[in-house]
Write a structure and sequence with these properties.
Blueprint lengths: L4 H13 L4 H13 L4 H41 L5 H15 L4 E7 L5 E7 L10 E3 L4 H8 L3 E3 L12 H10 L3 E9 L2 E10 L7 H34 L5 H24 L4 H11 L2 E6 L5 E4 L8 H14 L3 E3 L3 E8 L2 E10 L5 H41 L6 H9 L8 E8 L4 H14 L3 E5 L2 E7 L3 H16 L3 E6 L8 H17 L6 E3 L5 H6 L5 H19 L3 H10 L4 H8 L3 H15 L6 H25 L7
Parallel strand pairs: 15-16
Antiparallel strand pairs: 1-2, 1-6, 2-3, 4-5, 5-6, 7-8, 7-11, 9-10, 10-11, 12-14, 12-15, 13-14
Helix pairs in contact: 1-2, 1-3, 2-3, 3-4, 3-7, 4-7, 7-8, 8-9, 8-11, 9-11, 11-13, 17-21, 18-19, 19-20
Length: about 650
């Protein structure tokens, strides 16, 4: 019996739906071979099996990434609890070991003199690790701290490409460890120690595993710093409380600041939006807080900040990032850097209602770290949800006729309402760095409650709003500085429901093509900005809107004052832009035409006679005249037959 190619493809899909193990696909190929399938059918079936395995592997990686992110958020919740330092370090080591199923995890801390020692360990079977002195010798941890990046070896005992320390090698030998990774506990420009994880078998670390450990180490460093600060504060308060009654006030203030920061961290981990976090920070510091992106554009306002010296704020932002500390300005204004490692995420601009104390400034620094964590979580969430959003946008663009209950339910689950106006922006980076642009677009769409996709080498954004031109300019203003080269942007809209997204996308794409044809690379274009070209590119050819946009003020002036500016404008162009000939055609004095042209200039602007605008005005006049003639023909009675 001949092998049925359609049946084979269906069998592959069934195995894919069942998430069958890879061996089942091999069995399917053997069955096809035994059934007498020819070479072409076997090749096609093998190709389908390979694609199915790829899909299963991708789904598995997504599940692993989601599980790791969930575990990381749980860990962050744990680290906000007020542990003492030793208890906190045990939690960190235990979480690191369980998060990625390591056999052993331990934490080393660095002293001010540069020496280090192992403070705690988890999963060890000997007594060699806890309290072990590492001194100032070169090892994996010291190299990771110096590079401020993870260092690892898949088989440490025999790996001569990484530094070896006799004390650390003794632990590795006694514990029977093979794979070892060291991640720095980064704090500002320095490192306070390292987090080690190890396996008793050879293990090649994946980028996802390294990224999760680095995120855990950054959270751990912040928690260690807070725990150390609290311990020092408690010790200092204990020593001073016998000598001054003011100590109780200081302790109360420190506890208040600690509680404020804990609330901010909980807001981040509970999924609060940036405006909510900004308002909570402003309330805690008794002021108004604004979050700005690296380009100085506000991401959110907790209130009004009138009278700011923007030049001074720009200089203070640069100084804050250079010194990695808040910078004061006159009138109780503070600028604090928002950073993640070496990455500049923006600044906080605070206007306080009263002078800040040292503790207040410290809370402002911690608030900046909370904002950075929120921005990173939003970026990770956008990346994790990206495939779902992109699939929805693809369906809206490719299958608009199916924009029924199914799509409505999917948009509802994603928190989108396509019944409100949306615009489509199509952006093309002119420097070839599409990958960086795609990552930015995911975060941008998530922040603005929209969708992102990639088509024909361009970023496609579906964003809430009804001003396509403003949306295009905002996208270009943010993306161009990030990439360091121009971005050409076309936009159209607003949409009218989910079924209209595809048509608006086509209009935006045509605007981008027109921009390129007009040598406008690096600029922005919408149907409104393209004038009569926009009318030609529009899917519905909205003639009324074009006429109103082009000569609407003149038409309105004639209607309200019973003047003849429109007729004068038409005669002026019909006579070759000659006021004298226009006066003859209108049977009026040339001075009358001159006065009317001055009024037209007031209504349309001084550039109304420049070639580009003059062409659009003449097009609008012709369209209006044609429509009037057509309307008269429709309303006049038909001629009587002889």
């Amino acid at each position: 019996m001949a092998w049925d190619n359609g049946t084979g493809a269906l069998a592959v899909l069934e195995l894919l739906a069942q998430e069958a193990p890879p061996g089942r696909f091999d069995e399917l190929l053997h069955d096809a071979l035994r059934s007498g399938a020819d070479e072409a059918e076997l090749n096609q079936l093998a190709k389908a099996a390979v694609m199915a395995r790829t899909v299963l592997a991708s789904a598995g990686r997504s599940r692993d990434r989601e599980a790791a992110l969930t575990a990381l958020v749980d860990t962050a919740h744990d680290l906000t609890s007020p542990y003492d330092l030793d208890s906190l370090l045990r939690v960190i080591a235990r979480r690191a070991r369980r998060l990625l199923t390591f056999d052993m995890a331990y934490v080393s801390l660095q002293r001010p003199d540069g020496t280090s020692y192992i403070r705690t360990s988890e999963g060890d079977t000997t007594a060699l690790s806890a309290g072990l002195e590492l001194g100032a010798a070169q090892n994996l941890g010291s190299l990771a701290q110096r590079r401020r990046a993870p260092v690892w070896s898949a088989d440490y005992p025999g790996d001569r490409s990484v530094p070896h320390d006799p004390a650390l090698d003794a632990v590795v030998l006694a514990e029977g460890l093979r794979a070892v990774i060291a991640v720095p506990l980064r704090h500002g420009d320095s490192s306070m120690g390292a987090l080690y994880c190890a396996d008793r078998k050879v293990r090649h670390f994946t980028p996802d595993e390294i990224g999760v450990l680095l995120s855990l180490a950054d959270l751990a460093a912040l928690a260690i710093q807070k725990a150390s600060l609290l311990e020092r504060t408690r010790d200092e308060v204990t020593e001073l409380e016998y000598f001054s009654s003011a100590t109780n006030t200081a302790l109360t203030r420190i506890r208040y600041l600690w509680d404020c920061h804990a609330r901010l961290v909980r807001l981040v981990l509970d999924g609060a939006r940036l405006p909510t976090l900004a308002r909570a920070t402003g309330d805690a510091l008794d002021g108004v807080l604004q979050v700005r992106d690296p380009g100085g554009r506000p991401l959110t306002d907790a209130g009004e900040l009138p009278g700011l010296d923007e030049e001074a704020v720009t200089r203070a932002a640069l100084q804050a990032h250079t010194g990695r500390a808040p910078v004061p300005l006159p009138d109780e204004v503070w600028v604090a850097p928002v950073t993640a490692g070496a990455e500049d995420l923006g600044v906080l601009v605070l206007r306080a209602f009263a002078p800040l104390t040292d503790e207040d400034v410290r809370l402002l620094e911690l608030a900046a770290q909370s904002v950075a964590a929120l921005l990173l979580i939003q970026r990770s969430t956008a990346a994790a949800e990206g495939p779902v959003h992109e699939e929805l946008l693809q369906d809206l663009l490719d299958r608009p006729h199916r924009a029924g209950l199914d799509l409505r339910e999917r948009t509802r689950r994603l928190g989108l309402d396509l019944d409100v106006p949306h615009v489509v922006v199509v952006a093309r980076p002119e420097g070839g760095e599409l990958g960086k642009a795609v990552a930015w677009a995911s975060s941008y769409a998530y922040r603005h409650g929209g969708l992102k996709g990639v088509r024909r080498g361009c970023i496609v954004l579906l964003l809430p709003g009804d001003d396509a031109s403003a949306a295009a300019r905002q996208v270009s203003a943010e993306l161009s500085p990030l990439l360091g080269h121009p971005v050409s942007t076309g936009a159209a809209g607003p949409t009218e429901g989910a079924g209209g997204v595809a048509a608006v996308y086509e209009e935006a794409s045509r605007c981008l093509d027109a921009l390129t044809a007009l040598d406008g690379t690096g600029g922005t274009a919408s149907l409104r900005e393209l004038g009569f070209l926009g009318l030609l590119l529009s899917a519905d050819h909205d003639v009324d809107a074009f006429i109103t946009t082009t000569i609407g003020p003149v038409l309105e002036y004639d209607e309200t004052r019973l003047t003849e500016l429109t007729r004068t404008l038409d005669a002026y162009y019909e006579s070759g832009s000659s006021p004298t000939h226009a006066a003859e055609a209108l049977h009026v004095h040339p001075n009358t035409v001159s006065r009317r042209l001055e009024r037209i200039a007031e209504l349309l602007g001084e550039g109304w006679q420049k070639p580009a605008q003059a062409l659009e005005i003449q097009m609008a006049l012709r369209l209006r005249k044609t429509r009037v003639v057509l309307q008269e023909r429709r309303t006049s009675p038909p001629p009587r037959r002889q």
